[in-house]
Design goal:
Number of helices: 6
Shape: elongated
Helix content: 40-55%
Oligomer: single chain
Distance between the termini: 42 Å
Order of helices and strands: HHHHEEHHEE
Largest sheet: 4 strands, antiparallel
Radius of gyration: 21 Å
Strand order of the largest sheet: 2-1-3-4
Strand content: 5-15%
């Protein structure tokens, strides 16, 4: 329980490699936040984490090994967060760009297809922004964080909601 089964540097290296691979997979996953995961998305992440665990721990099942892994993950996450804030290239690699999905009362089919947006979600977004019809929409943007911004045609400003609904990217 207290005896390391692997050298500490190997545990750090295994953890760092798996962290980078998992981060890359999440980046390719799409504009999705944990709060908008479907049951299938949650199952995918949990199964992936379970499948990756042996790659991180190897033959080590010790408490000091677990402490090294947890510390490594938190340090890597902090480093990535700082790099994302300070290095524009890292920000571009890790974050999505906003995508215009509707303009002047019409959805943009290519944008909707590329983002995998569901028509039911789009209708809900219009209603959440107080619009009765798509014809009342001047601009709709799928933001980098997965939320949907809608500017009404009447020019009376954008209604801000306290709870931001996030929209799925199926792909």
């Amino acid at each position: 329980m207290w005896q390391l089964g692997l050298p500490p540097l190997e545990i750090v290296a295994r953890t760092a490699i798996v962290y980078v691979l998992f981060l890359a997979a999440l980046r390719l996953f799409g504009k999705r936040e944990v709060g908008q995961f479907t049951l299938f998305d949650l199952a995918l992440v949990l199964l992936a984490a379970n499948a990756l665990q042996p790659a991180i721990t190897g033959s080590d099942q010790s408490i000091p090994g677990a402490a090294i892994i947890i510390t490594t993950i938190f340090v890597l996450n902090g480093v990535v967060a700082q790099l994302r804030r300070r290095v524009p290239l890292v920000r571009r690699l890790l974050e999505f760009q906003p995508t215009v999905i509707g303009r002047d009362g019409a959805w943009l089919p290519e944008a909707l297809d590329s983002q995998g947006l569901d028509p039911d979600d789009l209708g809900a977004a219009l209603r959440e922004h107080g619009l009765d019809s798509i014809k009342d929409m001047k601009l709709a943007v799928l933001e980098q964080d997965g939320s949907l911004s809608i500017v009404p045609t009447d020019g009376n400003g954008v209604r801000i909601r306290a709870r931001r609904r996030l929209y799925k990217h199926h792909g």
